[in-house]
Amino acid sequence: MKNIIFLICIIVMLSCYNKNNDSSFIALDSPLSFQNIGIKQYIPNEVNNKKYYIVNTNIAKLDFIYQNIEYIYVASTNSNSLFVYLGTNSIYFYNDTFYSFLSKKNKLSDEVLNKLNIIFNITNK
Fold first, then answer.
1. 3-state DSSP percent of the chain in helix, strand and coil, to 5
2. Cys bridge to 122: 5, 82, 95, 117, which one at CB 3.0-4.6 A?
3. How many C-beta neighbours within 10 Å does residue 112 have?
4. Distance (Å, rounded) from C-alpha 18 to C-alpha 98?
5. 3-class secondary-structure state, position 60
């Protein structure tokens, strides 16, 4: 009887965990699919190992390597979704899109952020 109660408790805890973990990823073949959620972002040839995702139905996510460092680009037309997904990370706005670059290892310096903005053709003209 104790085993059955223990098993039920485990199942209930797992079902609650899955409901709270609302990040759903859909892998994509190309960045053209980002246009379905309103993101029209140039993806430069200088970046390698590109992996494209849609997160929570309205966030574009690109994992990539640039100069042997792993980065993440995320963007959305919905600022609230991006704030919830990123937490306290810096979010920028360009061309009707909220976006952010993240490093998988350390915080981005202004110099690196500026360089990524340039190669992604994100300029504030």
1. 35, 30, 35
2. 117
3. 17
4. 27
5. strand
**Per-position DSSP letters for 49-100, written without gaps between them:** EEEEEEETTTEEEEEEEETTEEEEEEEES-HHHHHHHHTTS--EEETTEEEE
Helices (H), 2-123: 2-20, 79-86, 110-119
**92's tokens:** 């920028």
pLDDT at 8: 52
Q: Please tell me the distance from the alpha carbon of residue 120 to that of residue 51, in angstroms, as a whole number.
A: 16
| 3-state secondary structure (DSSP) of residue 55 | strand
Q: Which amino acid is at 1?
A: M
Contact 82, 60 (CB under 8 A): no
At 106 the pLDDT is 77
Q: Rounded to whole angstroms, how far apart are CA atoms 14 and 6?
A: 12
Pairwise CA distance, residues 47 & 49, whole Å: 7
Place of tokens 């059955």: 4
